[in-house]
Amino acid sequence: MAMAKSAVIFLFLVMMGLCVVSNSMALVYKVGDNEGWSSLGHVDYAKWASTKNFHVGDALLFEYNQMYHSVLQVSHQDFLSCNTTSPIAVYFSGEDLITLGSADNFYYLCGVPGHCQAGQKVGIKVTPISPFPSASLSPTPSVSPSSYGSSPESTSTGPVLHFNIKPWMLVSILAFNSCLWSSFSKEV
Question: Checking phi first, is residue 117 left (phi over 0); if not, alpha (psi -120 to 50) or beta?
Answer without folding.
Answer: alpha
